[in-house]
């Protein structure tokens, strides 16, 4: 059987053929992801989301102590971005039945990954926790067809008088940042 080449593809599509990039993208310094074990039985599933030590530290993220747990609901197609903390750190979780893209953008001047942007798929059949260090702007887009849930653990309680939450416009990294890549 003859091996084909680009010259064998119909002319009107020849210039649209490309190779998908499978290389590992640069990760932002300090961002860490931990897979959660999911147990499936005939009667359903079980996931142990977080183990917390007697001193309040979250297993898998040394020195991260939970001070508050929050839940957010995002409508289909909704983008909640960008915000940044100067003192607080977050650990994010999206249930496997939802499908979101967590956007991360390193705004720290002294970081080796300064101005690096990355996207992390959350949910979509997987279970993982993602640690977001202070100084890394973050946001999310719900690419699912139904409202989605984010549960996030923070190491500081929210202070309504002096919130450690600064914002950038949702499209500060370009509106196309939030559009899912098609392969």
Helix and strand layout, with pairings?
Elements: H1 11-14, E1 32-35, E2 38-41, E3 44-47, E4 57-58, E5 61-65, E6 68-74, E7 79-84, E8 90-93, E9 99-106, E10 117-123, E11 128-132, E12 136-142, E13 148-154, E14 166-167
Antiparallel strand pairs: 1-11, 2-3, 4-5, 6-13, 7-12, 7-14, 8-11, 8-13, 9-10, 9-12
Q: Short description, anyone?
A:
The protein has one helix and 14 strands; from the N terminus they run αββββββββββββββ. It has 183 residues and is an all-beta fold. It has one domain: Jelly Rolls (Sandwich), CATH 2.60.120.10.
Task: Give the averaged pLDDT, no decimals.
Answer: 93
Instruction: Look at the helices and sheets and give the structural class.
Output: mainly beta
Largest sheet report? 5 strands, antiparallel
Strands ordered across the widest β-sheet: 1-11-8-13-6
- Assign the CATH class: Mainly Beta
> Hey, roughly how much beta strand do the residues contain?
35-45%
Looking at how many chains there are and whether they match, the oligomeric state comes to single chain
Instruction: Based on the coordinates given, report the CATH architecture.
Output: Sandwich
Tell the overall outline: globular
CATH topology heading:
Jelly Rolls
Compute the number of helices: 1
- Determine Rg (CA atoms, Å): 20 Å
């Amino acid at each position: 059987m003859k091996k084909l080449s680009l010259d064998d593809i119909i002319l009107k599509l020849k210039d649209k053929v490309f190779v998908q990039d499978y290389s590992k993208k640069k990760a932002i310094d300090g961002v860490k992801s931990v897979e959660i074990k999911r147990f499936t039985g005939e009667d359903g599933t079980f996931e142990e989301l977080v183990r917390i030590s007697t001193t309040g530290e979250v297993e898998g993220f040394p020195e991260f102590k939970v001070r508050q747990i929050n839940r957010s609901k995002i409508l289909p197609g909704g983008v909640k971005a960008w915000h940044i903390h100067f003192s607080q750190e977050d650990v994010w979780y999206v249930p496997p039945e939802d499908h979101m893209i967590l956007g991360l953008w390193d705004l720290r001047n002294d970081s080796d990954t300064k101005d690096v942007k990355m996207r992390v798929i959350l949910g979509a059949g997987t279970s993982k926790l993602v640690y977001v260090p202070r100084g890394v702007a973050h946001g999310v887009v719900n690419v699912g067809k139904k409202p989605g849930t984010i549960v996030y653990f923070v190491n500081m309680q929210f202070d309504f008088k002096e919130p450690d939450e600064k914002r950038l416009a949702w499209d500060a990294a370009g509106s196309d940042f939030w559009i899912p890549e098609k392969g």
